[in-house]
Amino acid sequence: MSDARRPDSPPWYLTFFGEDFWAVADHEYTPERTAAEAGYLAAVLDTSAPGRRVLDLGCGTGRHAVALAARGFGVTGVDSGGWALGRAESAAAAAGVPVDWLRIDLLRELPWPVDEFDAVVCVQSFGWGSDAQQLRLLQEVRRVLVPGGLLILDHSNVLAIAGKYVPEATFETEGLRADFRRTYRTASGRSTGEIEVRRGEAEPVVIHDDVRMYQPAEVRDLLTRAGFTVERVDADFAVGREPAPTTRYVQFVARSRADTPAAITAWEGRRDNRGSTQDEAHPSTQDEAHPSTLDLRWSPDEFEFVRPWVDAAFRSAYENGGLAEPSRAYPLSDPYSADMAAPALSGHFGLDLAPDTVTAGAGATGLLHACAALAVPGPVLRLAGGHPDLPRWAARLGAETITTRFEDLAAALDRHAPSVLVLDRPTITGDLFGRERLEEIAETARACGTTVVLDEAYAVYAGPGASCVPAVAEHPNLIVLRSMSKGYCCGGLRVGFAFAAPGLTRRLREIAPPLGAGGAGLAVALRLLAQGDVFGALRTRIAEVKPVVARTLRRAGLKVTEGAGCLPWVTVDGERGAASVVWEKRGVRVKEIGPVEVVCGAEGVSGAAFGGRPWEVPGSGGRPGEHAGSGGSGRRDGPLYKIAVPLSEARLTAFLDAFADAR
User: What is the model's pLDDT at position 119?
Assistant: First the structure.
């Protein structure tokens, strides 16, 4: 047994569960009760845990740990009591089973010095600390679990206890007397008290406790906030028995929710030929391991079509002393750069934007992070295939994330009443849905008390006139995000803007960090925006090349969605793995998004809930073959691949050469 405990003003539970407590508790935790509880734990673990490595939290004298080890589970028992762990070691030795024992304060010694486990069990060891400590404990449980790992959490139901609660009681048997004195405080939900234990002729010993008593609904809320999905709730260690208000012991069977990969995950660790980390605007065009690989995860060549305007913005910013002056700026009186940015943004979008509707931040990513905090306590509603960062961060802050499809969006809003709905415009498949549909969604969301966060980072290709920024004046629950990364290829400026009605802007600024947009980057960004729509040449080139790329991919046997004609990508349905074979065979790297659930049919993926087919190609008239999933029926899950359109002649030639047999 290792000892990781450090005595430091020990809380009550470090001294409570000693020899005197167990002299009393042994009469309650009989061998018959232990066998029944262990049988329940083993049955759930056998059917639901992804493996057989089990961590027993608050294992006490090892009654469950030893029983599970005897059934072939690899068990580690953890407890704060040295006396109890000594008995646990003896019990394991007597049973001839291997168990690892660790003495640790589970509430304070974080992170726990343990490896990963397939399952965690916690029986009658919950509620020793504050609500915040219990939440941290559950978050630590999730950390040590494998993805999809199982937690079986047992707790005493205060609903059953409160009706029989007495301030004083006595238990007496031969050679032992225990006098219980306790107080339950309704406002805090805590039961505090003491047990006076008399054993034979020895002097009485008084031990003190302070336990948070939970209702089952409170435990469910803590589990959800900690990142678990509750799969079942059982009563009194009986699989499938529904708890009632009078149920004394309630068991939650919960599974650790998988983390959604961050958007940056696809690029992390990759480096360009100059040794700097790649980004979407300035990547290497080749894969180091396979120099012949054509990388179509990004469009490094689009910058040539906007370079004149970007260069002009930098030249203008360098006038009158260069960027040194704005780099020194520390605008405490304008911490969200609203006063500075509002005039340029008003001119860019062709409407009057007051400073109290604008918040500048560190790109769309920084503003999405702030909106994630705005989403707590949740839930957060997102569309399948949408940008993952806001839901991921919100989940880490304790908010549940719910994924739906466009055609189910109205029903999902009504059912879940989420705190935030996050939408991408355009969608991953290139649906650049219009303001009319957005306004219908915003109205429906408002009736549910939901804030809509509309990420327009990719909408810049359509020009400022196509933005939904004007809608914030009519919808007090709408936030529209814009940035300089896509199209402008100036993500390194780290400048983004959030547009919202004044009331919602105030809420956002309570969370968003001030001074998020640097002065030098902001100076360039505003000069670039002041030039208006700079994407005419880029849109012309996309319109020339995109149909060629889509046609070539279809001739290679792939199901292609073109999306809006101004967007420099297409998507490919990766159903049944056929697409991945194509990429590998032809030496092409693409971005995998998914799995993304869609509905397939002869007329494409329908989304009548908000006026139209959200996955339909604008201008296609719903023609079969112009969208992912055409030609089938029913639902399916599968990856979606995003392919950047090669815009330069060199990259286009390389693409056509790779698909020479499909031309």
Answer: 98
